[in-house]
Amino acid sequence: MLVRNCAGGLVFRDDKVLLLLNEKNEWVFPKGVIRSSQTPEMVAVDRVRQEAGVAGRIISSTGHTNYEFYSISRQRPVCNKISWFIMETDDEAVTPDPVEKFSEGGFFKIEDAMDKITYSQDRSLLAVAYQKYRALL
Questions:
Q1: Which of 60, 71, 73, 92 is deepest in the core (most CB within 10 A)?
Q2: By the 8 A CB rule, do 10 and 86 touch?
Q3: CA atoms within 13 A on the CB side of 48
Q4: Is pLDDT of 11 > 90?
Q5: Is residue 5 a contact partner of residue 44, using CB atoms and an 8 Å limit?
Q6: Which residues, at least 6 apart from 80, have a Cβ–Cβ distance to it below 8 Å?
Q7: Tens digit of pLDDT for each residue in 16-43?
Q8: DSSP E strand boundaries for 29-92
Q9: What is the phi/psi pair of residue 93, to 5°?
Q10: Are 136 and 62 in contact (CB under 8 A)?
Q11: What are the angstrom distances between the C-alpha of 16 and each of 21, 68, 134?
Q12: Are 93 and 19 in contact (CB under 8 A)?
């Protein structure tokens, strides 16, 4: 199994969180693979900017998730281990990057985001991160 270390951000703007719609019609948070010369923090900030066009700043770490899938292109199983960061922004506009295969995106009220998010693991992550974010304010 190929194991990839990744990082991503849960980006808050007031009482809303950033979500992106990917090519599989899944509502997700921005994330990406950590390359050898990068830190998890660098990747989280870069992926938010690249995938959503949003300038986010990290205010705290918020935990880790893992998921496995079978990669057809690699012809083997892959495990993504993701370090997540709580981020905030003053940006209102979201510009999903079609090159990164995102067709929609925006800031959604937490309740609406919980309804949209595709994976239960991500809903749990949002619940914990939002609670921590509110405590940090």
A1: 60
A2: yes
A3: 29
A4: yes
A5: no
A6: 4, 6, 33, 66, 67, 68, 69
A7: 999 999 999 999 999 999 999 999 999 9
A8: 31-33, 57-71, 76-88
A9: -80, 140
A10: no
A11: 16, 28, 11
A12: no
**pLDDT tens-digit series, residues 78-120:** 999 999 999 999 998 999 999 999 999 999 999 999 999 999 9
Instruction: Say how many C-beta atoms besides its own lie within 10 A of residue 8's C-beta.
Output: 26
Cα-trace Rg, the chain: 14
In contact, 42 and 88? CB cutoff 8 Å: no
Token pair, residue 23, equals: 């090519």
What is the pTM assigned to this prediction? 0.94
Topology classification of domain 2-136: Nucleoside Triphosphate Pyrophosphohydrolase (3.90.79)
Position of tokens 């994330």? Answer: 31
Contact 82, 31 (CB under 8 A): yes
Q: 101's torsion region: left (phi>0), alpha (psi -120 to 50) or beta?
A: left
Contact 51, 17 (CB under 8 A): no
The two structure tokens encoding residue 20 = 């992106």
Domain boundaries, the chain: 2-136
